[in-house]
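In line with agreed milestones, work has continued on tokenised descriptions of protein folds. One protein thus recorded appears below exactly as we store it:

>
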Amino acid sequence: MTLSTTDKKILQRIQTNLPLTNRPFRDLAEELELDEDLVIERIKFMIDGKYVRRLAPIINTQAVGNSATLAAIQVPDDKIEEVGEIINGYSGVSHNYLRKGRNRPIPLNMWFTMSAPSNEELQENIKEIENRTGLKVRCLPTTKKFKIGVKFKIY
């Protein structure tokens, strides 16, 4: 499966600011001078082909009053799948990655981001993860944002 020129055109455009309208794909198609059904079909193709992981809004959690944190946990090798599934079961988890050191193991090997409607609920969820896994979660809340978002040039 390779991307067509049309796919690349759509992919370049959907990286930022999908129209916030009742018919975003129609409006996107109009802007790109394409057919709405074709835009939808090609986006589905790119998702199915794993070129696009998902199509979803990026919410500024603080702007909408939510609390968020980057969290890290030391997970034994034999519990990685189990702990990953527990963490991923929380709706506020947007990313969850297993990390390895280049030349040696690192003490905190699973990193995830979590948000919740309030700091109290966020802390409750973290404590619940600790209780369910038997592992200590280290929270690293944002103190200053330096960059948010990235846009790639699609060739």
